[in-house]
């Protein structure tokens, strides 16, 4: 490929938290000249060296560029310009207009509600006139949020409620501009659609804990993002459209909530002047948290058959990979512009409906980031029909018969048990679990008021009793209580059955650290027409506490 065949991609804010990660994604393409742009050249040169050492396939240049002096753009001859600099709150569209005037496409990572809302009116005419795209919000919000809702609600007849949330790890890099942007609306009135009507609530208010698959339960509060407008306009929910954000460490999240009252009560006009000390304080406490972050989108409504349904998309990032997520949609959109695959005539607007969820996530391939979709049937009878939703009806008949929850069930057969000695053996004896060996086994499942079930497992006559019930605050989860301990699980269906995936545990109402939890692997499945089960519970300190596997018949 000759140099002349390459298209020039100018990345403004390339040395920032998200810009640097976006640069790594774009540097994989051999058909571009990637121009790293910012106000200071030294960080750009450091990034250039890093990209070249990492095997970049793009041709890479460095350019000093100030967004406030957009006339410098023309000398760079861009095909597309990406604004990853921010912040976008309170900004006009002068830079985007200059990009279009230079004959280039424009893409940004804006998460500012006011900027995204005004974007089409400011730029549509100019974009159509020059035949170029101007795309805003090509980031976690609102691009990923809306793409997730699109995927979850395909074929639905009604959307009732949408709640999306994001929670970075405490050790994630924190740009001062991001902190300042959050403080701009913390404690300020935020327009939101709740209880079927437009309303106003303070930013960072209504703190509550929300389940983040792969991460556990974290605190979130109301955040002002473009999603609040996009979700209401695109899906017309009947009850609510909410977006929340949270800090991993409870003292930081709740501390900011308390601080928000200074603005709510008129003691401070804005919290923005506190950005630097608060950002520094969060850095001091960061070692108490993790480098794991994620987001989740939950939707409730009616499916194609008119039945009540809930669905959830979740993403979680390990080992500090979280800051790559906001950059991925922009990388995907730029790739589509380079390939000429964006459908429809060029226009200006939010990055909503342009690419599907899989395409927006494709730039994250190879990173320690996972995503999944869950479905539930909140009105279903029985723990597992509720937690598995449509997936329950796809299970083998023998598994459905045992767990439909409509009548008491007894299964009998034989099971082989295993386990360690010492303290593990003592735990088994106290719980009524069997000693290693083969035992006659019976499992009785009795329905309880409120949709729960009482399980009695008998191994050679010794009973082991527990209660299993839907999680009160999460239709996608269920809980098993053994004495004072309660374990929360997520049910994951597969072709022949479903697995019990451990999520958290507690002693009475007191949450317990996940690091102290026993490691549980459990499966319920069918083989050769028979009901099968396999359970293994081990602990980092005790080794294998117990395990059993067997075959039962109704």
UniProtKB/TrEMBL annotation:
Pfam families registered for this protein in UniProt: DUF4166, Sacchrp_dh_NADP
InterPro entries listed in its UniProt record: DUF4166, NAD(P)-bd_dom_sf, Sacchrp_dh_NADP-bd
Domain DUF4166: 395-552
Domain (Saccharopine dehydrogenase NADP binding) ranges: 9-110
Name this polypeptide is given: Saccharopine dehydrogenase
Origin species: Caulobacter flavus
């Amino acid at each position: 490929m000759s140099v002349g065949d390459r298209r020039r991609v100018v990345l403004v804010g390339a040395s920032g938290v998200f810009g640097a990660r976006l640069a790594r994604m774009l540097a994989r393409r051999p058909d571009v000249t990637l121009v790293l742009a910012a106000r200071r050249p030294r960080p750009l040169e450091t990034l250039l060296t890093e990209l070249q050492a990492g095997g970049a396939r793009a041709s890479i240049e460095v350019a000093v560029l100030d967004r406030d002096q957009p006339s410098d753009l023309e000398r760079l001859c861009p095909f597309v310009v990406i604004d990853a600099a921010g912040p976008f709150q309170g900004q006009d569209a002068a830079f985007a207009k200059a990009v279009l005037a230079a004959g280039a496409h424009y893409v940004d990572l804006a998460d500012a509600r006011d900027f995204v809302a005004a974007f089409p009116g400011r730029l549509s005419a100019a974009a159509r006139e020059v035949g170029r795209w101007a795309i805003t919000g090509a980031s976690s919000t609102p691009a990923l949020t809306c793409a997730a809702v699109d995927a979850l609600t395909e074929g639905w007849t009604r959307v009732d409620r949408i709640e999306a949330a994001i929670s970075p790890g405490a050790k994630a890099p924190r740009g001062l501009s991001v902190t300042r942007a959050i403080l701009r609306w913390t404690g300020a009135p935020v327009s939101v659609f709740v209880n079927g009507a437009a309303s106003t609530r303070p930013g960072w208010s209504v703190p509550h804990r929300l389940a983040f698959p792969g991460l556990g339960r974290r605190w979130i509060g109301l955040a002002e993002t473009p999603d609040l407008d996009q979700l209401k306009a695109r899906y017309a929910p009947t009850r609510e459209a909410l977006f929340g954000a949270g800090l991993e460490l409870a003292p930081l999240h709740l501390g900011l909530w308390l601080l928000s009252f200074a603005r709510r009560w008129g003691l401070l006009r804005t919290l923005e002047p506190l950005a630097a000390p608060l950002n520094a304080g969060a850095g001091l406490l960061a070692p108490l948290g993790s480098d794991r972050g994620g987001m989740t989108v939950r939707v409730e409504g009616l499916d194609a058959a008119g039945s009540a349904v809930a669905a959830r998309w979740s993403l979680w990032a390990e080992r500090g990979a979280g800051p790559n997520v906001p950059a991925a949609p922009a990388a995907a959109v730029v790739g589509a512009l380079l390939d000429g695959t964006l459908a429809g005539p060029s226009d200006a607007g939010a990055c909503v409906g342009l690419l599907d969820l899989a395409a927006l996530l494709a730039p994250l391939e190879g990173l320690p980031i996972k995503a999944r979709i869950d479905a539930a049937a909140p009105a279903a009878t029985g723990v597992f029909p509720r937690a598995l939703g449509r997936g329950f009806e796809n299970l083998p008949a023998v598994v459905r018969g045992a767990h439909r929850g409509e009548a008491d069930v007894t299964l009998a057969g034989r099971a082989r048990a295993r386990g360690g000695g010492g303290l593990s053996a003592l735990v088994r004896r106290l719980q009524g679990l069997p000693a290693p060996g083969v035992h006659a086994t019976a499992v009785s499942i009795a329905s309880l008021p409120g949709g729960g079930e009482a399980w009695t497992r008998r191994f050679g006559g010794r009973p082991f009793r527990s209660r299993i019930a839907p999680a009160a605050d999460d239709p996608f989860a269920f809980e098993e209580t053994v004495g004072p301990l309660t374990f929360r699980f997520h049910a994951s269906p597969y072709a022949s059955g479903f697995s019990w995936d451990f999520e958290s545990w507690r002693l009475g109402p007191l949450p317990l650290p996940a690091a102290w939890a026993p490691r549980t692997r459990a499966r319920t499945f069918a083989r050769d027409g028979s009901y099968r089960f396999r359970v293994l519970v081990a602990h980092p300190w005790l080794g294998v506490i117990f395990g059993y596997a067997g075959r039962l018949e109704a």
